[in-house]
Amino acid sequence: MKAKTAKAKAAVKKVAAPKKAGVPPSMSTEEKYQTRFLSERRMVYVAGAVLAAAAAACYANSLANGFVFDDHELLARPMLRRLAALPGLLFESYRPLRDVSYAIDFAVWGNQPFGFHLTNVLIHAANTLLVFGLARQVTREYVYAGIASLLFALHPMQPDSVSYVAGRRDLLFAFFYLAGFHFYLAYRRHTAMRGGAGYRKRRAVLLYMSFAAAWLLGLMSKEMAVTLPLFIFAWSFCEAWDNTASSWARRFGKALRSAIARDKWLYMALSIAAPAFAAYSVFISKGSVRARGLEFSYWGGGFYSNMLTAIRVHAWYLKQLVFPTPVVQYFGAFDVSTAFDARVAVALLAVSCVLAMGFALLTWDKRLSFAVFSYFLLLLPVSQIIPHHELLADHYLYLPLMSFGVFIAVLAERLSRRGKVLKLVTVSAALVLVSVLAALTFGRNRVYKDDLSLWTAAYAEAPKSTRAVFNLAGQYAQSYPAKAADLYERCIVLDPSYVAAYLNLAALYQTKEKGRRVEELVQQGLALPESVIIGVEGNDPLRFRAGLTTALALAKSAQGDHYAAEQLLLQAIDIYPFLTEPYDLLANRYHRTDRAKEIAILRKEVEANPSALQAAQYLAQRLLEDKRNDEAEAYLTEIVAKWPNDFFANFQLAKINQSRNDCAQAMKYLIKAQSEAEAPDDVKTVELTLKGLAQQCK
């Protein structure tokens, strides 16, 4: 008995006073807590530094990339070159926060692509840390949270957002989305604490306001941020799941009621704000060219075919998670399903199984269920419920890859519980996977080096993509015109309704023999039935016929029949007055032969296309050359009203007012022109004009 008692005392002593590494037994409880807290903080800093460094290192070779594809158009806007235009960007831009970030880059780096790419890499590294913080909330383990973060940071689908300056939209929206969710979790933790009611209330209000502000900034970066309240709902629903309830239906109902009750005011606000934001994005900001008023141009021509295709797209995304094959551009490479077929059946089965797995896993590990639910919720805005001009894109997976990373990390953690050997194998396999993905990503970054490398890769990845074929042809047009012509012809074979391919081919084929070849292709195109012309893209038949008539005019001109070419261009304008090419070709023709006709055709273009800035500038310039200042002034004033930052219009208005000795008006326009001047010659010209005006107006 005594022996038993002695053994029991020894056991109690052993349990009551375990030795902890780095914590001397003489420390007080508070000192021990502080030591553990500091040790935990150091671990967080070290892990964060390693993860951020890994993300930055993987994209280091993207810093040498140039501007490609959409970068050129996005960054060409003059208002991005002036920090003074920042307030205007916030109200005039489609994605204002993205554009503000570009303006800051211009202010810091000028026109150097290096700085823009560096900003992308830094934001991506910050997002990696935010994913790490969220993964720690889920796994409670540094190792597995690190695995989730690395899968997010280094997955080969990410370069479409990180290595491409136009991908800034995805990086910024993800940053504010994740930051907003962290603020929300902090708000919940704070409201659950006891004591200090006044302080807690103020702190809770501050955290909730921070959450709302982050969400708003996310929406100003990209529309996909609208799902944040649903993301929160998925978190609350999974957290509230209780396996002790008698039936699955009761558990579901209880979790649903709990999740709604926790943030009912947020969901009530969402029910009002979400439709309003969707209406603003679609109908006011024109976020989708497939939405014209209340009419939607669905993929395949109807809602049924649109949804069949969307299901296949979701299955494709699931495949990309586990077997990534990035594609630069899917335009024309992913065919639309107009009827239920085997591919749709397989896709529906795959998507349904993953969703069903999400619900089934609630009883085993609800963290895995959250990963599944959050993944699909993040993709909801691009699921073609409201059809978007881009059917699918690699960059849509940027933030959903966070959910995939969390799923793999939780699964690895569950497997590791079964023993040290299995833990070693699981962690080692995860690290090998991460290393392979990092190598693939590092190589993928160079695809975005320049436009030639981009479209060469796009053509190799999707040889049936009309956009890839067309843009690669454009890269060869100057250096290898024969190769460009072959690609334009291939583009027409792939899509006989691709108007731009006919026009560019006609511009290349400027010999009699080649002109006859263009004429042959155009006649075949004009014979197409209207259903083929409209196609899945919803092309305008009138625009198509006007474009082909313009191409035919170029072919006639190449064959020496200039009168027929002129008549065809006039006919193209009558068919579709909004196509700019026939106006430009006629204006160029008349510039050499008949100034009155040139001015008349430019007037007609400006009347038909009020947004045609270049046509209005050309018209004003021609009128000024003919000393018709009053007529030119009317057009220049219209330009300034629509484009207040236009250098040409402001400078010319200054010169007109200077000629009238109207010093005040001349100075006003000249100062504006000076603020907009970018080219060295323009800057010098304005300076000289300012000096002359100062002398004139003494």
Structure notes:
The structure is a single chain. The chain is mainly α. The chain is 72% helix and 1% strand. The protein contains 33 helices and two strands. Helix 5 (96-109) packs across helix 6 and helix 6 runs parallel beside helix 9. The longest helix has 30 residues, at 29-58. Mean pLDDT is 86; it is low at 6-23.
- The fraction of residues assigned to DSSP E strands is under 5%
Spans of at least 5 consecutive residues whose pLDDT stays below 50 are 6-23
Mean pLDDT: 86
**Gross geometry:** globular
Rounded to the nearest angstrom, the radius of gyration is 31 Å
Question: Helix share of residues?
Answer: over 70%
Number of domains: 3
Strand order of the largest sheet: 1-2
Tally of individual helices: 33
Helix/strand class: mainly alpha
How many β-strands, per DSSP? Answer: 2
Characterize the largest beta sheet: strand count, sense, and whether it forms a barrel. 2 strands, antiparallel
Write a short abstract of this structure.
Helices cover 72% and strands 1% of the residues. The chain has 33 helices and two strands.
Defining traits:
single chain; 698 residues; mainly alpha; Serine Threonine Protein Phosphatase 5, Tetratricopeptide repeat; two-stranded antiparallel ribbon; 72% helix
How are the SSEs ordered, and which strands pair?
Blueprint: H1 2-16, H2 29-58, H3 70-75, H4 86-92, H5 96-109, H6 113-139, H7 142-154, H8 159-162, H9 168-192, H10 197-219, H11 228-240, H12 248-262, H13 264-284, E1 291-292, E2 295-296, H14 303-322, H15 342-360, H16 366-379, H17 400-416, H18 420-444, H19 451-461, H20 466-476, H21 481-494, H22 499-508, H23 512-526, H24 530-534, H25 541-558, H26 562-575, H27 580-593, H28 595-608, H29 613-625, H30 629-642, H31 647-659, H32 663-676, H33 680-696
Antiparallel strand pairs: 1-2
Helix pairs in contact: 2-6, 2-7, 4-5, 5-6, 6-7, 6-9, 6-17, 7-17, 7-18, 9-10, 11-12, 11-16, 14-15, 15-16, 16-17, 17-18, 19-20, 20-21, 21-22, 22-25, 23-25, 25-26, 26-27, 27-28, 28-29, 29-30, 30-31, 31-32, 32-33
